[in-house]
Amino acid sequence: MRIYLACTVRGNRSGVAAARVAAATLLALGHEVLTSHLLEDGVDRAEAAITEREVYERDRRWLDACDAVVAEASGSTYGVGFEVGYVTGRAAASGQRIFVLYDAACRHTVSRLISGYADPRGATCAYESLGDVRAFVERHFGPPAQPAGGS
Q1: Which residue ranges make up each domain of the chain?
Q2: What's the rounded Cα separation, in Å, for the pair 85 and 106?
Q3: Which of 27, 23, 30 is nearest to 70 (CA)?
Q4: What kind of fold does domain 2-140 have according to CATH?
Q5: Looking at residue 43, what is its pLDDT?
Q6: Cα(6)–Cα(133) distance, rounded to whole angstroms?
Q7: Residue of 100, 109, 101 lying closest to 127 (CA atoms)
Q8: Mean pLDDT, to the nearest integer, of 15-29?
Q9: What are the DSSP calls for 23-40, one per residue?
Q10: Which residues have CB under 8 Å from 38's CB, separation 6+?
Q11: What is the average per-residue pLDDT within 38-48?
Q12: How far apart are the C-alpha atoms of 6 and 80, rounded to whole Å?
C-alpha cells in the first residue's frame, strides 16, 4: 500500500518519534511511505527550498494517490488536520482509509475532532508508548490473520 504519513513540520514536533516508529513499521511490512522525508531533522529548511504552492500541489497529489493516511496528530498543526479532513471527505468514493495517532498525554491539547475521530474507514490510537504505535500499525497494516487451524 501507498501510505501518506502526516506529521507536524513547522509546529510542535513532539510526535516525530512516534511517526518514525510508524514509518519504520510500515516499511518493514512492505508498504511505501510517500512522505518519509518529513521525519528528517531539519525538514522545515528542506521544504523551504520549494514554494508553498509547490508543497500544496505535491502533497495533494500524494493525498490523491495514497491508499491510506497515517496521521501523527500530537502537535498542534493545521496541516495534519487539513490532510485528515481532505481524505476523510473523499474516502467513501476513493476507498482510502485514515488512521490517527496521538500521544495520550497530549489529549487535553489535541483537537477533539482528532481525539474523537471515529470514521468507519479508519481508527484512532491514543498511544502511551512507542510500542503502542508499533502494535497499532501492525494490527491495521500487517498481513491478515490466519484462521485457526488453517494454513
Answers
A1: 2-140
A2: 20
A3: 23
A4: Rossmann fold (3.40.50)
A5: 75
A6: 14
A7: 101
A8: 93
A9: HHHHHHTT-EETTGGGGS
A10: 5, 6, 7, 9, 19
A11: 75
A12: 6
Span between the terminal Cα atoms of the chain, in Å = 24
CB 133, CB 23: distance < 8 Å: no
* 76 pLDDT above the threshold of 80: no
Cell (9 digits) for 49:
527550498
Task: Identify the helix (H) or strand (E) that includes residue 67.
Answer: none
Q: How far is the C-alpha of 65 from the C-alpha of 113, rounded, in Å?
A: 24
Amino acid identity at 148: A
pLDDT at position 132 is: 97
Give the long-range contacts of residues 123-130, CB within 8 A, separation 24 or more: 123/99, 124/99, 124/100, 125/99, 125/100, 125/101, 126/102, 127/18, 127/101, 127/102, 127/103, 128/103, 128/104, 130/17, 130/18, 130/21
